[in-house]
Amino acid sequence: MTEPLHIVCPHCDAVNRLSQQRLSDQPVCGKCSRELFMAKPLDVSSVRFARHIERSDIPVLVDFWAPWCGPCRQMAPAYQQAAQRLEPMVRLLKVDTESAQDVGARYNIRSIPTLALFLRGREVARQPGAMDAGGIVAWTQAQVQAATAR
């Protein structure tokens, strides 16, 4: 029998325990009763970022971006499409590096957009530059596979 996964609620940030087999069953939060997966990226603040990165047992893909960045705005629809294809196996977050400067500094984000993949609280891969939806999905799946094979 496999250990339950910890999944952070995108609405109330409660940590839920869920079997891997139930990920695709449209699970709901035990605290707020809202869906755990919305098939769209979640905009997070510094505090919420830390909770999702540190407490989630599924991989977390983060788009570090800024509102003034043209390539970031161009990539936003592709990131949305990628979320529809990657969830519930991967949680997608967006971090505005202007409003969460501490997170950008902590992870040494020097160019945007930058995608970073986290697994069990640790950054395992990074990709700077805008990508299309297919590229985001392919890159993420390859990085998850490589990180879990280690």
TrEMBL record:
A Pfam family matched in the record: Zn_ribbon_Thio2
Domain Thioredoxin: 9-145
Gene3D superfamilies: Glutaredoxin, Zn-finger domain of Sec23/24
PROSITE patterns found in the cross-reference section: THIOREDOXIN_1, THIOREDOXIN_2
Lineage: Bacteria, Pseudomonadati, Pseudomonadota, Betaproteobacteria, Burkholderiales
CC terms in the record's Gene Ontology section: cytosol
Entry-linked NCBIfam families: PRK10996.1, thioredoxin
Organism: Massilia polaris
Single GO molecular function: metal ion binding
Name of this chain's protein: Thioredoxin
Gene expressing this chain: trxC
SUPFAM superfamilies per the UniProt record, alphabetical: Thioredoxin-like
GO biological process, one term: cell redox homeostasis
Keywords, comma-separated and alphabetical: Disulfide bond, Electron transport, Metal-binding, Redox-active center, Transport
Family: Belongs to the thioredoxin family.
